[in-house]
Amino acid sequence: MQRIISKLLHNPYQLFLVDGLGAILSATLLLLVVAPLETYFGMPSTIVVVLGIIACLLVICSMSCFLIKPRQWTLWMRIVAAANLLYACTTAVLLFLYAHQLTVLGFLYFVGEIIILCLLVILERKAAAASTTT
Q1: pTM of the prediction?
Q2: Choosing a second label site near 103 at 20 to 30 A (CA), which of 6, 29, 59, 64?
């Protein structure tokens, strides 16, 4: 695991790819599983669809950076990290606001998404910081 993390920190474009693939997975799950199965997750489908659309926007940003490979990648990495953190915080607020109607499955899904996003943000910030110090 440490080897994979080290490789991602030294190749930021692969980190954009991982971020983009994660956002694709998140958008797919939100729009094709969680929203239609509101009864099993408890989060209102309208809220889930909005989260899914935001995830689609994050896919566009991360995958564009992976494909275009901008020279100012540290700026874009910081932007993507900030967007991911904002998305995680938004999800956490929604988790709190709708706690009374979330099922255990819904709670586990959204907490899992928040944890994964926070770990990704840490990696993205480390990659950007390492670039500016070298």
Answers
A1: 0.91
A2: 59
Q: Is residue 96 part of a domain?
A: yes
Query: Domain of 48?
Result: 2-127
Residue 133 belongs to a domain: no
Taking the C-alpha atoms of residue 46 and residue 49, their distance in angstroms, rounded to an integer, is 5
Domain assignment present for residue 80? The answer is yes
Q: How many domains does the chain fold into?
A: 1
CA-CA distances (angstroms) from residue 113 to 35, 61, 88, 98? 15, 19, 8, 16
CA angle, corner 72, sides to 66 and 73, nearest 5? 35
Does residue 44 sit in helix, strand or coil? coil
In a domain, 76, yes or no: yes
Residues 64-93, buried b or exposed e (16+ Cβ, 10 A)? ebbeeeeeebbebbbebbebbbebbeebbe
- Contact (Cβ atoms closer than 8 angstroms) between residue 129 and residue 15: no
Q: How is residue 68 written in tokens?
A: 């275009």
Banded pLDDT at 1 (limits 50, 70, 90): low
